[in-house]
Design goal:
Helices cover 55% and strands 7% of the residues. The protein is α+β, with helices and mostly antiparallel strands. A hairpin with a 6-residue loop joins strand 2 and strand 3.
Length: 702
């Protein structure tokens, strides 16, 4: 049965993962030829079970060298200078199996000439028949036209903007404003759709001329009014996996689709499904025309589908982006990016506001007994989505479970964030608990409630001070999550430390546990005051290289990228890890160059601590001690010239040895457990007290 498959992509000099990609590698993979990239000297050759049939077609005014595949793509590589430039447009097209190989080849050539070459492109065609059940061809197309004299043309030109008086309109940075205008229509959606349509027409023409009573269409099932689901292109790799007894997701998906389509063909149930859908439409979103228009505009501006999940995800992305820019150098580019972040946040807030209004209308219509102001946005949106999905009002048990699931999912996301950046959490959790507790006390005093207040008092306060009462609920919720997170991290650390340090005494604080764990991660073995002076993680040359990278003055993202590529286990954002590194360098300081010694002092773990919102006194104390010893060495107190004259000298001792010795003595001595007791008392209170949600029943409780 003849099938329609026509997929396309733009090939760029960098992959989605940011890795470089050569046009010669792409052309070599499709053609089966060995090609050399002149810019790097790299050779590319990919052996295939069957050599592809290849052709290069070109417009009449193109230079002769385009017919040499290696020359063609090297010249493309030269003219597309930007590191991330698009160098080719590529299509993957399934050939009708019903045609002979000669007819398939003629069809591919005729189509490419009419669709692409006559438009001004050079077409590099490769027909693949590795899989007899999946004959297809790839065509790589130049994205830049040729001038009539055979030189490269331009892809786009600038059209400057002028005001009513004929003066240039300027951007915020003072430069002339303009719009980019393509010199061809190759990037237009209509052109792509015409190429798809033309392929169906050409293939059907060949099928008809060869008296084959089958045809293909470029239209989707939806456009043809069919209830069936479309299958996807399986490809050579998927079929090979299947032949070798391996599971291919593509083939398995097509099996399920065919099974489903068989049911639709044999049974007439889809009519009943349509009737049920009409009934369910009463449980549908009802946006006003102006709301629909605004959401559509926001979605187009943000280039994403707008719903609660996508808004939440995009907000998180913007927050990370904003943090990465905070510590970069001020520049016009930084200002432009910050403005973009602010603009997107405004659009997201506006979209969320519209979704909130619509969800409130939905809830008041279908759940009139609920107080929508007393349930979280995530719960409210989930109730609306589930109601629409099931086509009915949810019962109370379902809503209870839904709330529990959301709370659990939210907590898991938070814990995952903590584990990913646990040292930041350890440094901040106590100060954040203290800060929120003080805020909670202020609100309680203002509205006259406490943890022991009667439901009637709470209800009255909620009615009298609705905004403050909501802040109080949020503060309590935040405290709960922080306490739960702290408890979970405590348990996690205890389990890890029990395996690494079985004889460690009870009663360590989170920061102390974190210090011992980072020491283990740094040296890949347990640390103590006897062994730490003799341990070494990095060679002197590696230490020197890391020092130079960390103090290079490049932006944080560049420094992080360089370290991760060369030393993937180096925890550059962990201030404790940096302390261990500086201490190890201190013990090798006589082997480092004068410049390395000077730069070593510039490495500041305290800055990493500051970025995590709270400066750790422990980190500050040890780092100051290390810097003092580095300073003493540099000033000659340790006879810095001795290393260059071959004389012996006294080496600076490890700061961590003394600090670790003091820490271990403190671990084994009597300690004040007031904070631990307070923590345990809070947990007991929380476990004893069962909360009721404000939106259920008349009584209010915290």
């Amino acid at each position: 049965m003849a099938i329609y498959h026509f997929s396309g992509q733009l090939l760029s000099k960098v992959t989605k993962e940011g890795k470089p990609k050569s046009p010669l590698a792409c052309a070599a993979y499709r053609s089966g030829e060995m090609l050399v990239d002149e810019s790097t000297g790299d050779k590319f050759h990919y052996e295939r079970s069957m050599q592809p049939i290849t052709h290069i077609l070109a417009p009449e005014h193109a230079p002769d060298w385009v017919h040499n595949r290696e020359k063609l793509w090297n010249e493309v590589n030269k003219i597309e200078k930007n590191y991330n430039a698009q160098f080719a447009r590529e299509f993957n097209v399934a050939l009708p199996r019903e045609l002979s190989e000669d007819e398939q080849e003629k069809l591919a050539i005729e189509y490419c000439k009419e669709a692409f070459v006559d438009k001004g492109m050079v077409a590099d065609i490769a027909i693949h028949r590795d899989d007899v059940d999946n004959p297809h061809f790839h065509v790589m197309l130049t994205v830049r036209p040729f001038n009539e004299n055979g030189t490269w043309g331009i892809k786009a030109k600038r059209e400057y903007k002028f005001d009513s008086e004929g003066n240039h309109i300027l951007k915020q940075n003072g430069k002339k404003d303009f719009v980019k205008v393509d010199t061809t229509d190759w990037n237009k959606k209509d052109t792509f759709n015409n190429w798809r349509k033309l392929w169906a027409e050409k293939a059907n023409k060949y099928l008809n001329e060869n008296e084959i009573s089958q045809s293909i269409t470029h239209l989707s099932n939806k456009e043809r009014g069919l209830e069936k689901l479309p299958t996807i292109h399986e490809g050579f790799v998927a079929r090979k996996m299947n032949e070798n007894g391996k599971v291919s997701e593509r083939i398995e998906y097509n099996k399920e689709v065919k099974k489903y389509n068989g049911i639709v063909s044999e049974l007439d149930k889809y009519k009943q499904i349509k009737k049920e859908y009409q009934y369910q439409k009463k449980f549908s979103r009802k946006f006003s025309p102006s709301e629909k228009k605004k959401l559509s505009s926001i979605a187009k501006e943000l280039k994403m589908f707008v719903d609660f999940d996508s808004i939440s995800n995009r907000r998180n992305q913007l927050e990370k982006w904003n943090k990465s820019l905070t510590f970069s150098k001020d520049s016009q580019d930084k200002i432009s990016k910050m403005n973009r972040i602010n603009k997107e946040n405004d659009l997201l807030n506006e979209a969320l506001s519209i979704l909130n209004v619509e969800s409130n209308r939905f809830m008041k219509t279908h759940y009139p007994a609920f107080d929508v102001d007393c349930i979280s946005d995530s719960v409210k949106f989930e109730i609306v989505d589930k109601t629409i999905y099931f086509g009915r009002v949810l019962d109370e048990d379902e809503i209870y479970k839904l709330e529990e699931d959301i709370e659990r999912y939210t907590l898991i996301k938070q814990i995952n964030g903590i584990l990913f950046n646990r040292y930041s959490f350890v440094m901040n959790v106590d100060s954040q608990i203290d800060k929120i507790s003080k805020f909670k006390s202020l609100i309680e005093n203002k509205i006259g409630v406490s943890a022991n207040s009667q439901p009637s008092v709470l209800k009255e306060a909620a009615l009298k001070y609705p905004s403050d009462f909501k802040h109080l609920k949020n503060a309590l919720s935040a405290l709960d999550k922080l306490m739960e997170s702290k408890e979970m991290i405590q348990e996690l650390y205890d389990l890890e430390l029990k395996k690494i340090y079985p004889d460690l005494p009870y009663g360590l604080g989170l920061e102390e546990k974190e210090f011992l764990l980072v020491g283990y991660e740094y040296y890949h073995q347990p640390i103590n005051k006897e062994t730490v002076s003799n341990l070494q993680r990095y060679s002197v040359d590696e230490q020197s290289e890391i020092i130079r990278i960390l103090t290079s003055g490049s932006g944080n993202l560049i420094i992080h990228d360089k370290i991760k590529r060369k030393y993937p286990e180096f925890q550059i954002a962990n201030p404790r890890y940096l302390l261990f590194f500086k201490d190890e360098c201190l013990r090798n300081i006589h082997k480092l160059s004068r410049e390395d010694v000077r730069l070593l002092k510039q490495i500041d773990p305290e800055k990493e601590a500051e970025r995590d919102m709270n400066m750790s006194g422990f980190i500050q104390k040890i780092n100051n001690s290390i810097d003092q010893k580095i300073g003493g060495f540099s000033e000659g107190h340790y006879d810095i010239d001795a290393q260059f004259e071959g004389r012996a000298f006294s080496e600076p001792a490890s700061v961590l040895v003394g600090s670790l010795d003091q820490m271990l003595r403190e671990f084994t001595s009597d300690r004040s457990y007031s904070s631990k007791k307070k923590f345990e008392e809070e947990l007991k209170k929380k476990s004893k007290k069962k909360r009721k949600n404000i939106h259920r029943g008349g009584g209010h409780s915290l």
